[in-house]
Amino acid sequence: MSEDLWSLHAPVDAELAAPQALTGSVTLIIPTFNESGNVGELLRRLGEALPDHLPCEVLFVDDSTDDTPAVIEKAAAEHPFPVSVLHREVAEGGLGGAVVEGVKRADTDWIVVMDADLQHPPHLVPELVGEGERTGADLVVASRYISGGSRAGLAGSYRIAVSRGATWLTKGLFPRALRGISDPMSGFFAMRRSAVTAEALKPLGYKILLELAVRCRPGKVAEVPFVFQDRYSGESKSTAREGMRFLAHLASLRSATPLARMVGFGLIGLSGFVPNLAALWLLTRGGMHYLPAEIVANQAGVLWNFLLIETLLFRDRRRHRHWADRVGRFALLANADLLLRIPLIAVFVARFGMEVLPATALALVTTFVLRFAATEALVYLPRRSDAPRRSPTPTTPGTPTTPGAPTTPGTPTASGRHPRS
Fold first, then answer.
1. What are phi and psi of 50, to 5 degrees?
2. What is the pLDDT of residue 382?
């Protein structure tokens, strides 16, 4: 993944440029994807909203394919606070991944996350941080669902219903982690940097607050009401594909513990009977003998189980092996289950005197536990040769370069402008 970070407006005061965090200091992380029409107005409103006594820097994490980075550069020169852009050539993790990249680079007391489309009112940024300082909260959420808040900017009854349904679903799945959060779908919040462990985050899609609340478990939570505004410019990024990513994200969060993964593994295995039986019916109706049809139909169930397990249980571990390697190992384990089950039943009946039905049930449970453990260990655990990935070193103004060194793709030009812009 190629990334570029360059400062567009460096702080004048040398103390502000020091690496240590200042008391009450804020990094405002704004993920962008083709938001060139919103940047100027957003920075203008932030300039009006941010008080002089609040040390604040703005970090745009940009996945755009248009001229958004160049527009940010031009607009930033008109404002007194520091503004930087981190441009990602690969939008890994979507909006949530962009926020995590920003979190890794933040060294202030507070992190505030907001969208660039002005549906999140900039004048609330000082209020979010102020509420955290007053109450001692680790997380302060701008909520549409408490007194004084409104979802007015949601376009149409369909989006309102989807938002409400997603809120009920997430609060039902994570009642303890989301206690005190009335709007877990909000993308506008402030969080103490000390309460965030960036390495623990594995975001997928838009719902980064849900990811932070579930994986980081902030101690005290406060809320501030806000009115969700209409978009200032551009189009909504909410799509059916993002909806599917959201469901996959929920499954990934809910199956984070080994016990939860085992339960999910069993439920997916049960669902595999549907494609298995459907394939068996089609093959036998087509004239195939039932014995080879059983073997072929079993592969349909294996493939079904593999796709669901990849998507819902082990999404974050897929990079450790090539997909063909994973498919082969998974299919081998699934079919070995059949070969192991019959000898186990025979042992339970002959050696321990069990009846056939209890022996079959016990064999099913035994092979299930063994297959789950083997799947984790042989298909999805990292190989020893896999070294942890290191984030590329950001490019900042004033960093000395080696004369004559080759220019790598994505490196900002001397003017601080990205070549793609």
1. -80, 120
2. 67
Cα dihedral 317, 319, 322, 324 sign: positive
- Using CA atoms, how far apart are residues 154 and 104, in angstroms rounded to an integer? 31
Predicted TM-score (pTM) of this structure: 0.63
pLDDT tens-digit map of 12-23: 333 333 334 445
Measured between its terminal Cα atoms, the distance across the chain in Å is: 18
SS3 223: strand
Give Cα separations from 161 to 157, 164, 211, 234, 414 (angstroms). Answer: 6, 5, 22, 22, 49
Who's near 274: CB < 8 A, 6+ residues apart? 304
**Spatial contact of 325 and 386, defined as CB atoms under 8 Å apart:** no
Strand segments, DSSP code E, in 71-138 are 83-88, 110-113
Beta-carbon contacts of residue 325 (< 8 Å; ≥ 6 apart): none
pLDDT (tens digit per residue) in 251-261: 777 767 777 77
Query: What is residue 357's predicted lDDT score, i.e. its pLDDT?
Result: 78
**Is residue 421 over pLDDT 90?**
no
**pLDDT (average), residues 24-40:** 92
Residue 401 has pLDDT above 60, yes or no: no
How far apart, in Å, are the Cα atoms of 358 and each of 204, 339, 366, 370?
43, 18, 12, 18
List % helix, strand, coil for the chain (3-state, nearest 5).
50, 10, 40
* Closest of 95, 26, 85, 97 to residue 55, by C-alpha: 26
Count other Cβ atoms within 10 Å, centred on residue 331.
16
Element (H, E) at 187: none
Q: Which two tokens stand for residue 193?
A: 């940097």
CB 76, CB 43: distance < 8 Å:
yes
183 pLDDT band, cuts 50/70/90, is very high
